Amino acid sequence: MLPILTELEPTVAGLLDRHLAATKEWFPHEVVPWSQGRDFDPAEAWDPDEHPVPDAVRSALYVNLLTEDNLPYYFSTINRMFGADGAWGTWARRWTAEEGRHSIVIRDYLTITRAIDPRALERARMAQVECGEVPEPETPQDGFAYVALQELATRIAHHNTGKLLTDKAGYDVMKKVASDENRHYLFYRDMVSAALEVDPSGTVIAIERQVRNFEMPGTGIMDFEAHAKAIAKAGIYDFAVHHDQILQPVVLRHWGIEQLEGLDAEAEKARAALVKRIGRIGKAGHRFAARRDEAKQQELASV
Predict the structure, then answer these.
(1) Is 186 within a domain?
(2) Residue 41 is assigned to a structural domain of this protein
(3) How many domains does the chain fold into?
(4) How many angstroms separate the Cα of 196 from the Cα of each of 117, 149, 268?
(5) Cα angle vertex 32, ends 29, 35, to 5°?
(6) What is the C-alpha separation between 281 and 197, in angstroms, rounded?
(7) Residue 10, in any domain of the structure
(8) Mapping DSSP to helix (H, G, I), strand (E, B) and coil, where does residue 222 land?
């Protein structure tokens, strides 16, 4: 085990205890609207009008589920980075058990309601899992930073998708999943805080690298670019959300990147680049959001 992992293991144990104390048991089968289901006839074509959903929300549900389907590869990466023993291994297995129910409940909901073409969804799942594309962080600090950002981004995407669903069952499904993701985010957010105390320079360099290379959860999914554009256009997840709900509150405020002291020359350079990048992302995101809102207002005015 790498020295930083050994040094941080007591922190992991404490965060795991906190996580378990805050976790509330829930069951996927209790939030799925089973009464809406019926048998599938293989000869019957899928009809999107059977469960009307805006195209952008369908895109979000599609991306959200396929991201969750990639769990085996995320577990493999975490297991490789942190190891299978001690508190690290216990956390990785607990995290995997909780994440596993997300694809179960979302897929059951989508199958029952027929909100997405089930054949297209299964073909996309096969392609996604056969591809197995996930980030491979360079260092443990990269891993902490990436997963903290990714868990929060996923929580936001699930939550915002749920808010746009018109049926209570769909909202409840996405709320349950988002709640799990939020607790996972808090674990990794505070792991990064602990890493900043142990190795501030190495952790700042890792954070800058992960912010620079960060991509919306779902990269590698079939037709991902088209779905990502639809999701951004609907305001479910875009650069403005990324800046206002992740980079500003977490990277700058919670981790206090600008206030850190004792950084080496490389880390100082990384910090300056990081702060500058976050500013650029915010400006670009708000410009996009303003244009989107203006287009919506013009569309409504023309009706």
Answers:
(1) yes
(2) no
(3) 1
(4) 45, 16, 14
(5) 110
(6) 27
(7) no
(8) coil
Tokens standing for residue 128: 């996604």
Residue 109: give the domain boundaries: 15-36+52-302
- Residue 152: name the closest of 131, 180, 113 by CA: 180
79/81 Cα distance (integer angstroms): 6
The CATH number of whichever domain residue 297 belongs to comes to 1.10.620.20
Place of tokens 């650029």: 280
Q: Are 102 and 180 within 8 A, CB to CB?
A: yes
Write phi, then psi, for 250 (nearest 5 degrees): -95, -60
Q: Which residues contact 58 (CB under 8 A, 6 or more apart)?
A: 48, 115, 116
Residue 292 Cα to chain centre, angstroms: 23
User: How do residues 130-189 score in pLDDT, each as one tens digit?
Assistant: 988 888 888 999 999 999 999 999 999 999 999 999 899 999 999 999 999 999 999 999
Q: What is the mean pLDDT of residues 124-134?
A: 89
Q: Is residue 106 part of a domain?
A: yes
d(CA 31, CA 168): 10
The pTM for the full model equals 0.94
Structure tokens at 28: 């996927």
Half-sphere exposure at residue 42, Cβ-oriented, CA atoms within 13 angstroms: 0
